[in-house]
Structure formats: structure tokens, C-alpha cells
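Explain this record to help learners:
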Amino acid sequence: MGVKRLIYSSTSSGYGLNQTPNIESQQDDCLNPYSVSKITGEKLCKMYSDLFKLETIIFRYFNIYGDRQPIKGQYGTVIGIFEKQKSENTPLTIVGDGNQSRDFTNVDDAVQANILAATKELDEKHFGTVFNIGRNQSYTINEVAEMYNHTTTNIAARKGEARATLASIDKAKNILGYNPKINLKDWLKNRIK
């Protein structure tokens, strides 16, 4: 045992259909089983902090992408899937009308947040609370597809997905010193040939 601090990986999908920007004080609005399981984990973290003084920090990640990202299956990210489709010269599959927007967070920025959370001296009141880890900048899926300059095809919309996500990162900035550095558009310029 001997665990002093636990950083829990949750999800921005817990905000569901809340207005953007998504702020940690918003009510949960789970639209699918995945988000329910993640929000339940958040509540357990809070309980362990309150009852047993375990230092838990809850991160709601917003659409992580970057090196070694999943490119297929249930956990494939839109960026990873688009990269795979372009490399195979198949059309990029846009779910629904493509006007849904997402706040994309580079994995290097997520790592920065985790290091800060693991090492920073924090007041007890911050344990068992949620921090948004995003960039505070959204792109529609259509805008992301345009960055690839490749053919596209639309597939049916999926049930249980938010229309828009946009992280308010003020809490993570002010308390942890989190400062995301990598912009999706700039990152893709170096990847797309």
C-alpha cells in the first residue's frame, strides 16, 4: 500500500449536453455507459478523499491525441482514425454532419498536467475535485477533415454523443500551473504530407 496520491483519468463526456465552455461546476450529464462508468469513478475518488484522506485528483480529459494514439476499435481517436484512413488512401469517415465540435488535447500537454498533479503541493480542499485537461479551443470534425486535404464520406450519427466540448481550463491553470502548449492545427501540419 502506502499510496499517497492517486490521479484518476476521467472524461469530458461526463458533461454531455451542457453548454460550453465546460466548467467543473456543471452538473453531470452522462449520455452513454462509458461516461457513467467514469463519473462513478470520480465519485469514488471524492469519497476516498473525504473518508480516508487519500489525495485524489480527477482529470477530465478532452479528446487526447498524439504519438502512439489508437487508430482503430472502440478507443480509436478521430485523429488516429483519420491518419490511418489517409495513409491507406481511403475516405475519411465523418460521423453525422461533421459539425460537432471537440476540444483536442495533445498527449504531451496531458503528460504535463499529470506531472504537475503528482508533484505539486496542494491544499486539502482540492483533493477529490475535478480538473479539466483540455486546450480551451474547439474544432468541428469537418474543420479537422479539411486539415487533411483528403476525400471524405459521411456515416450515420451515433447515439449518446455530445454536440460540442470546450474545456474551461482556468482551474487547472490557477491551481496546478497547467499551460497547454500544442495546437492541433500546428501539430497536424508537421504530420500531414
Notes: The chain has a mean pLDDT of 95. The first helix runs from residue 33 to 52. The longest strand covers residues 5-11. The domain at 5-189 is CATH 3.40.50.720 (Rossmann fold).
